[in-house]
Amino acid sequence: MLILQVLQWGPCHGYALSKVIRTNSGEILKVDTGSLYPALHRLEHKGWIAAEWKVSELGPRLRVYRLTKSGRKQLVVERCRWSQLTEAIEGILNPAKQESGS
């Protein structure tokens, strides 16, 4: 979900994705390359993201990822699941709050 969310803001390469996640989470979430690149490959295989090689300003080629139309739809699904999960956890952590809302 986080990768799809970041790519919704625009195409970027793997290191930039990792940096955005780390920075926007206040340095709490740190995605290492051993986790990031396999996840990118899975998302690409599912058709949720697409990638192409581009030349960087520094010379070496970079694999730049972008969100596809089906990836945008999947992001909506993932955000809904996340909302349900956080509500469920909140219900366990604060059961009195759940009871008073009924």
What does this entry look like structurally?
There is one protein chain. By secondary structure, the protein is of the alpha+beta class. The protein has one domain (2-93): Winged helix-like DNA-binding domain superfamily/Winged helix DNA-binding domain (Arc Repressor Mutant, subunit A), CATH 1.10.10. The protein is 61% helix and 16% strand. The protein has helices at 2-8, 14-24, 33-45, 69-93, 95-100, and strands spanning 12-13, 49-55, 61-67. It has a three-stranded antiparallel β-sheet with strand order 1-3-2. The longest helix is centred in the C-terminal third of the chain and has 25 residues, at 69-93. The two termini are 31 Å apart.
Question: In a nutshell, what does this entry contain?
Answer:
With about 100 residues, this protein is an alpha+beta fold. It has five helices and three strands, in the order αβααββαα.
